[in-house]
TrEMBL record:
GO terms for molecular function: phosphorelay response regulator activity; transcription cis-regulatory region binding. It comes from the Bacteria. Keywords: DNA-binding, Phosphoprotein, Transcription, Transcription regulation, Two-component regulatory system. This is Stage 0 sporulation protein A homolog. The gene is walR_5. Residues 138-236 bind DNA. CDD domains: REC_OmpR, trans_reg_C. The keyword Phosphoprotein applies. InterPro entries: CheY-like_superfamily (IPR011006), OmpR/PhoB-type_DNA-bd (IPR001867), Sig_transdc_resp-reg_C-effctor (IPR016032), Sig_transdc_resp-reg_receiver (IPR001789), WalR-like (IPR039420), WH-like_DNA-bd_sf (IPR036388). The modification 4-aspartylphosphate is found at residue 60. May play the central regulatory role in sporulation. It may be an element of the effector pathway responsible for the activation of sporulation genes in response to nutritional stress. Spo0A may act in concert with spo0H (a sigma factor) to control the expression of some genes that are critical to the sporulation process. GO terms for cellular component: cytosol; protein-DNA complex. The keyword DNA-binding applies.
């Protein structure tokens, strides 16, 4: 039995439009000590991920309202939970696509439920057990009166939540992880946009301006300092 943090079972979301598959998998996973949430379409699955504590998601591709590919893309904007695709599509191109958009594993139908359970165990162990120390230490980043919640992807200042876009969150995370270190535009761009930085891009200046406007100052001092000719740093 794989137990979650604080001796609470890990919670698995099964998103599939075939209720028989949900019931079948639930039977095996519950025997291993997992708690199960289920959804019959992509819209319901997304609502559960946004409102419940989900530790791993098993997602079918062909679902109504929001298909599996679109669901994974949306989830990956703000959430890095392990995702296992369970699909009747067996072509290599489908597997490459699924893994390329952010899935961690791909299982084809028909499947062996024992294999699915073993894959779930492996992904849970890899993500939570082997990285337990790092996960525990980096649930939140704190700097002066700013708190960045890495699980919920929100910023808190003096008890008030400040809404952030995914890009703003990634930039703040990078700067707050190592305050005092100067990051170049190239480093910031590649961390936030997850793409290669080729030419000088005004997008970084725009987002820095937005972030500064949102977080304001503390005792007349800006949190983020521009280092001319080099980049930006978060003041320690």
């Amino acid at each position: 039995m794989v137990k979650g943090r604080n001796a609470v079972s890990y919670r698995i979301l099964i998103a599939d439009d075939e209720q028989e598959i949900i019931n079948f998998l639930s039977l095996y996973l519950e025997k291993d000590g997992y708690e199960i949430l289920s959804a019959s379409n992509g819209k319901s699955a997304l609502e559960l991920i946004n409102t419940q504590q989900v530790d791993l998601a098993i997602i079918d591709i062909m679902m109504p309202y929001i298909n599996g590919h679109e669901l994974i893309k949306i989830v990956r904007q703000n959430n890095n939970i392990p995702i296992v695709i369970l699909s009747a599509r067996t072509a290599s191109a489908d597997k490459v696509l699924g893994l390329g958009i952010g899935a961690d594993d791909y299982i084809t139908k028909p499947f062996d439920p024992l294999e699915v359970a073993a894959r779930v165990d492996a992904n849970i162990r890899r993500f939570y057990k082997l990285n337990a120390k790092e996960v525990k230490e980096k649930i939140m980043l704190s700097l002066r009166d700013l708190i960045l919640d890495l699980n919920q992807c929100i910023l808190i200042k003096k008890g008030e939540e400040i809404a952030l876009s995914s890009i703003e969150f990634k930039i703040l995370k990078l700067l707050m992880e190592t305050p005092g270190r100067v990051f170049t535009k190239k480093q910031i761009y590649e961390a936030a946009w997850e793409d290669n930085y080729i030419v000088d891009d005004n997008n970084i200046m725009v987002y820095m301006s937005r972030i500064r406007e949102k977080i304001g100052e503390r005792e007349g001092e800006a949190y983020i300092k521009t280092i001319r000719g080099l980049g930006y740093k978060m003041l320690p």
